[in-house]
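Onboarding guide, step 5: your first structure request.
Type a short instruction followed by the sequence, for example:

Predict the 3D structure of this protein.
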Amino acid sequence: MRLTNKHFLKDMSVMFGRSMRHIFRSMDTIITVCITPIAMMLLFVYVFGGAIKTNTENYINYLLPGIMLMAIGSGIAYVSYRLFMDKERGIFERFNSMPIARSTVLWGHVLTSVISNGISVVVIILVALLMGFRSSAGILEWIAVFGILGIFTFALTWIAIIAGLSAKTPDGAGAFSYPIIFLPFISSAFVPTDTMPSIVRAFAENQPVTPIVEAIRNLLAKQSVENDIWIALAWCIGIIVVSYIFAMKVYKNKFNNA
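The system replies with structure tokens like these:
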């Protein structure tokens, strides 16, 4: 094993610090990520909310989990963009010429994505509270909610890395996120799936967003999560494994078996 691998954690902390500095120097990134989900939340609560039947007293409580997933889907597009810009500027070649564990360049972006998207989610929760969101969840339930959101972000970020390393243009780097942002619309995030046509319902109930949304919604309401949490975790872990393998393969092919 190479000597540099013994300093993996130290190298990763340096790369993480570098990526976080970029975030804090341009907080408009986090603000931009929040704008569309918050606008959607305002639209659905104050315009469409009265016409949507969800068997809940407060529609914002039903809606919030899906809005948080939309924010994460939007936020990971910036990971692809930053990776693409690093690639175009020759940053990877520069780092690969140094005595560091080379995969830490990617891990720095991954950890930054989890933290920055976590900040965006907190901002959205604060806005939701102003709109009337209330939760009976305790500390353990909130920890579980943020744990699921963190794992979901972690999974999608590795997909973002594949897109960022493979893209030919800045727009192409972020375009992959559009289907991910759209997925909550074909799930139980906005309306119950039993109101959908049979074909659409079958898709909605068997894609990753629905069990994640249901698990988070039940945790926030302090209700039984049943099998939803395990299905949600299985989806996330499966995505992590597959996307990590492909991301590392693309990275090594791009940078001479780095």
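Each response can be followed by summary notes, for example: The mean pLDDT is 85.
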